[in-house]
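Incident review: delayed structure delivery

Summary: a single-chain prediction request sat in the queue longer than the usual turnaround. Root cause was a stuck worker, restarted by the on-call engineer. No data loss occurred. The affected request and its eventual output are reproduced below so the record is complete for anyone auditing the incident later.

Affected input:
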Amino acid sequence: MSRYDDIIDLSKVEPPKLIDEKEHTQIYEEIKAEYQLKWPEFEDESEFEPVRAHLHVDAQMGYQVRARINTAAKAALLASATGTDLDAKGDGRSTPRKLIKAGEDGAAYIMEADEDYRDRIRIAPESWSTAGAEGAYEYWAKSVPGVRDARAYSPTPCVVEIYVAPDDLSTPADQTLLDAVSEAVCARIRRPIGDRVTVKAAEVLNTPVIVTLYVLAGPSVDLLKDKAAMQATEYLLSRQKIWKSLYRSKLDGSVAVAGVEYAKTSLDDDVLVGKHQIIWASSLTVNVEVINA
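Output delivered after worker restart:
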């Protein structure tokens, strides 16, 4: 199996809807119409009509049941499961969530983020290969505590290079982490003995980003800034994977929220990376300038 064959991009999978989602008022009107069919003499003239109150209760309960069914459907799929539901999906593929940082002095434990964990669960079947597929190498490398991302690459037959990026991208992977990955894919327990594997630190491209939003005067400037920052952060985090380039057009699109006249970013062009590189958006600064209409 290879990522280039039939692996689905889970970010593009629409959440399932086992039943149609309807608003409370829509459900209420349907129940009311059914009630009037059975009791034509019913007249809904007062806001405090007792029957009307009961119908509203029924509608609210129906709304909650529909929402619960669809929520349960989302929890059942890898593409949309989160939290403990995602943990259950991982257990089904013998892939537990990684501990990122142990709690000290009463502090909470920091566990692997849902999106990183989802990616490891997705490629878990690759680890069942006994032929040294690239996905198998990447699965076992990513399963090492302290590894954010890993990429396997074979420049020539029987030669494998694994590039590793640490959780903390302020510095490249240190030798201790590289040794741990080497042990995780060693010929003694896991890889084909004919493969010659080298584990290397991925080059970290420090890419601070500055965004300037140009907006008209109004009371919602801070809201626009917060929303643009949230969307830009989401896009930048999605780029913090080995061999994931940062595209200026997509960054511009992420900050083009409703209410912003136009925006400028500090990127002069796309930041293109190779198989051995990873982008680190070390900082995101969002400035706002109010312009005259």
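Verification: The radius of gyration is 26 Å.
Action items: add queue-age alerting; document worker restart procedure.
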